Amino acid sequence: MQEHILEIQDLCKSFKRQTAVNNVSLTVARNSVYGLLGPNGAGKSTLLKMITGMLRPDSGTIRFQGQEWTRKDLSRIGVLIEAPPLYDNLTARENLKVRTLALGLPQSRIEEVLAVVDLTATRKKRAGQFSMGMKQRLGIAIALLNQPELLILDEPTNGLDPIGIQELRELIRSFPQQGITVILSSHLLSEVEQTADHIGIIAGGVLGYQDPISPGQDLEALFMQVAAAHRRDGAVHA
């Protein structure tokens, strides 16, 4: 039986009486890539923000490493949600140095994470001059600084060209071999299908499906079925 690094039970979140996440329960296996699929506005980001402490659940439980989640667990979780938090006037190394100083981490981590994301040759180039793919990889490097056991990536391929997507896909697939579990949120079926081991499909704030990816599985038909079953008019989700 595969060990779970994250277990969520009956998680709920509403905004002004409109439900964003509705009784979601899911499990994430250690050293895997879990693909969280859903149309735009399905509740993916709201769910991830609760896992990372950015939002407080209305009800339900989150267990990390077999224990109820506390803010102390953030030291073992890396996060990239929405745009990478970069200082455009600083180099990649300078951006990372700011974080190591703020978090009290050894500066030796800077070169280590730059090597992981293949940005060691950026030298004095400022982050504002980076391509979108380079910015995303630097954002991931920042998320890796604290040597996380769980890495959460929300729509990391947004705005990337095909080469950038391929490079990021290979990077994400390498993480489980390094002892890093990944939750990858996306609305792109092909991206999750080529990257993830397990998938969860969320629509209308409801997790309508969760299982390992099977060879030859018609993911598009499954996605449309779940999305249609849980679509609700007038609901607002993030």
Q: Topology, please?
A:
Blueprint: E1 4-15, E2 18-29, E3 33-37, H1 44-51, E4 59-64, E5 67-68, E6 77-81, H2 92-103, H3 108-116, H4 132-144, E7 150-154, H5 162-174, E8 181-186, H6 189-195, E9 198-203, E10 206-212, H7 219-230
Parallel strand pairs: 3-8, 3-9, 6-7, 7-8
Antiparallel strand pairs: 1-2, 1-4, 4-5, 9-10
Poorly predicted regions: 233-238
Strand fraction band? 25-35%
Distance between the termini: 33 Å
Biggest beta sheet attributes: 6 strands, mixed
Spatial order of strands in the largest sheet: 6-7-8-3-9-10
Oligomerization state: single chain
Report the C-alpha radius of gyration, rounded. Answer: 18 Å
CATH topology of the domain at 4-85 and 150-230: Rossmann fold
CATH architecture of the domain at 4-85 and 150-230: 3-Layer(aba) Sandwich
Please report the number of helical segments. 7
